[in-house]
Amino acid sequence: MDKFFQHSVFNRDHSNQKQQLFYAIFFTVFTIAALGIDSVFFTRHFFNARLITNFFAIIYFSLFFLSSDSHLRKLMFVMVFLSYIGELIFCNLLGMYNYRTDAIPLYVPFGHAIVYGSGYVFANTKFAIKNETILRLFFVFFFIVLFLSVVIFLNDIFTLVFGGLFFLILMRKKWQNLYCFIALCVIFIELVGTYFQCWIWVPKIFGSIPAANPPMGAVFFYAGGDVLLAKIVSAWDKKSNNIFIAP
């Protein structure tokens, strides 16, 4: 009976891992489709379909969430609220970028959670774990070349400053590949979103720092949010464990 139970648990966990990987990989296709529907082009030539994008983003988030283990579920759940607070600060308060409409789209906080979940799943695949050292070297080289390229060719001084701060976060987190995988997902969604004009970064951040659209240095803010997210979930876990073991 115990062997049967263990076998069932193993099969369920293996199935969940395959589902998570599917959602992480398919996130690229979903992003293009969802943001394409919310694009300026689609709105002008057809109709305002943001409600459709909102609906499918919530559905995709829910499916991804249900296929995840308890730890990733907590991370994705908290990320929805944490990212919305970030949107209020960076978009509404600081005016670093603007959406197609005045309101922050409902799909955005769920999209941030999907982006985080995808990077998390990629970072925890057998391939990523087995090739951790090689990937770490690749990521360092890739981001150095990327940041310097946009600084030199696009005069993206914002990336020069905040790209450097991104490396400081990586250094403090002992060069964990998790943050680099998430950063790749962030760069992808930023490129797609700005291409479809779902949002546009202002040419001068804080009114004085030249930036590309999108600035690659924006990954710093995501990485900082990821660090805060991990601390919140860690505190949540500790509180839950204390309640569980309390007499």
TrEMBL record:
Annotated TM spans: 21-41, 47-66, 75-97, 103-122, 134-151, 179-202, 214-233
Keywords, in A-Z order: Membrane, Transmembrane, Transmembrane helix
Keyword Transmembrane among UniProt keywords: yes
Protein name, per record: Uncharacterized protein
